[in-house]
Every structure is written in C-alpha cells, then in structure tokens.
Write a structure and sequence with these properties.
The protein has about 110 residues and is an all-beta fold. About 0% of the residues lie in helices and about 55% in strands. The chain contains no helices and eight strands.
Amino acid sequence: MLLLSGTPFADESTDWAGTATNPEIQYRTQVYENSKACYLEFRDQQQGSGPTTFDAEVDYKSKVVEHPGEQVTKTDRENIVTTRAHTGSARISNCYGVTAVRLSFVQRQ
C-alpha cells in the first residue's frame, strides 16, 4: 500500500507574474476548489538584505451562497513580508481564482 502525505495538488496553478502596480514584486497562485481557497506566494525581484513589506489588494472570484452557480468579484487586503530566504504568503477563503493584485504600500529595508 502506498500512502502519500503533504500538500495536495492544486486544481489550478499559475507562473510568477508581476503585480499590476509594481512588476518587481511578483506573485503566483494555487487554487484548491475542494477547500474553496486560494493560496498566494509573493517574491521581490529587488529584494535587499532586509525584509520587504507591502500591502496587497487581491481581486478574486467568489461564489454567491444564495445562487451557487453565480460568481462575484471581491477584494481582500493582505499585509505581506518577504525576505531573501522566504516568500511571503496569503490564503483567501471562498476563493475560486485570482483576477488581479495591486500594491498600495512597499517598504524595502
């Protein structure tokens, strides 16, 4: 018998892409329909020796509870920190796909 553990495969994954307002900060997404969640990873292409901190506004598709087949676009704000050794991450519940990411604050140290 073979047992597998770890993170299940995402239903949808994307390659790294620049954010709409700061292309040096990139993100990629993984969507898990069974858990109804989107996971985002962020990295700074101009990462210095210190951390990079920023606020990310994430537009995503969400389903309407009253109308199961209907989707709406919502926005969630996440505070993200990246370092040379670690990507920043965020999890958005009731998410079925990310449509855009904008940054409203970036501080590099």
